[in-house]
Amino acid sequence: MARTPFFEGPVIDAAVNRALALQLAAAADTGAAFYQPPLYPAFLALLYRGGLQSAWSVAWVQAILGAITCVLLVELGRRLASRSGAARLIGLCTGLAAALYGPFVLFDLELLPPCVVQLLLVGALLLAFRRGPLGLGDALLGASLGLATTGWTLSVLFLPACVLLRGRRLPRPRTSLAALVLSAALLPLAVTARYNARHGAPGVIVSYNLGINLWLGNNPSWRETWRARPGAEFEPEVERADRNGMTTPAERSRFFVQRAVQDVQHRPLAFVARTAEKLYYVFAGREIRRDQDIQLLRDASPVLRALLWERGLAFPFGLVAPLGLMALWRRRAEPELRLLGASVVVYSLVLALFFVSSRYRLPLVLVLLPLAVDQAHELWRARSTAPVAQLALAACILLANWPSELTAKFAATEAERGLLEATAWRNQGRWEQAERLASGLAQRFPAEPNVLMLLAELRAAAGSCRDAVPLLERTVALAPRTASPRLLLADCYESFGDEASAQRELANALALHPHHPVALRRAAWLLWRQRKTREARVLTTRFLASGYRDPALERFFYRAVTPSDRGAEPAGTN
């Protein structure tokens, strides 16, 4: 990983997490409601405040957390062993398998939530198997699940199984257990809900990306939107709510939920078919990327190449999933395994309602991995006397690793790989290297709007707006539904002193996105400067009514509505 630019130049969600962590470390506030679950940025902010800001420092801390998770999985494997005489062996093999599980190794080095969420979930599962009276351990069980939910919302789906597993080890009545665990779990959720309410998102418990994620996996073009990445394809989708006047976080989330529900109502059979298809992908062997391109990292890391590969068999999940599911079926008569199996089923179904990716199914691995080790042990013991089980395993492996044209398309194209690398160099502050790589990409892929946009951003940031303008004009022609290139064009025209052209581009952006906060704010300031009071008032009023805030614009607006101040000249417009 350290051989790639991504180690010190995170991209997409990892870059967002780092930016939020820096804000939290500096001011204990991001200035807005949480769009994504906040646990990991908060964890990262604690490291930054403690002086651990280098990529290597964070990597070491996360590797230690990953190692602790592996140690805890040793104990979980021991608890889940079907034969008490083999419990120690199953536990040790589970820990070793976890330490060598490719996706665990990969995500321990990314600025992403899995390293923290997995530790909390394994800790909660172990506490659920604890014997003894009601006490502090049960409060820790609830707190662990609550914290995990603030890092990955679907973690809450493990709460019922954990409470019931722990309840089996307590004398009746068990209402006190449920009350204690739920109260402890609600504490971190109350903190995030209060923060969101104070930042304009009342009713949002953890984050407000639930709606857009539901819509991306449930619409007439779900195969395309599922694969969309930030850029020319993703921007029009994520801005649908804003374009319809839904500008607060809660409104945005509600808008997308309503759109997804409407699609289900109008096309119920299509909903059932796509959910069933996505449910298959939950257990399919191939690692489905969300942000980073796994192949890029495999190419750079001999360790990942050995631990994460596809050669007919998609290793390791293409082996772990069949073995783990077979163990759940074989041991379905055991009450505790039924509870864990129910959690696996519910989690898988809910995940299939949204969309599947490699890191989103990691919580399933925490349950399936020890069971897979146990099943492998049983198959080895009965290798000469249970041919049916051997054939069943072969059939399950074949099904889990069946070639899929759709998931193969998730691999990054050559242009996207270059774009990710150039973005990583830029995020490191290596502007010249990023610009050099982006220039080469633009020559090779002249019809790729995201490449042209990145190169334009780099040149504009270097003060070469005249070189950026032709690139932006081509970007607009290739991606006419995106507002971002028009906003940068307006920036460039303003730097030339061409306010008329800047105003035209801002108007074009607002025609696409009438409630775009940046376009509204900048167009309003431009009109105030030009003393076009009526038009400026309209845009400023829309800006404020949409829930956006700019103290300087707000102060000027309320002064300008009085006759004596209508001719005032705005200052500080940038």
Please give a handful of descriptors for the protein shown.
574 residues; globular; Serine Threonine Protein Phosphatase 5, Tetratricopeptide repeat; 2 strands; mainly alpha; single chain; 31 helices; two-stranded antiparallel ribbon
Could you please describe the fold and organization of this structure?
This protein is an all-alpha fold. The chain folds into 4 domains: 13-198, no CATH class; 210-408, no CATH class; 413-480, Tetratricopeptide repeat domain (Serine Threonine Protein Phosphatase 5, Tetratricopeptide repeat, Alpha Horseshoe); 489-574, Serine Threonine Protein Phosphatase 5, Tetratricopeptide repeat (Alpha Horseshoe). It has 31 helices and 2 strands. Strands 1-2 form a two-stranded antiparallel sheet. Strand 1 and strand 2 form a beta hairpin. Helix 1 crosses helix 2 (39-49), helix 8 packs antiparallel against helix 19 and helix 18 packs across helix 20. The protein is globular. The two termini are 39 Å apart.
In short:
The protein has 31 helices and 2 strands. By secondary structure, it is an all-alpha fold. It is globular and about 85 Å long.
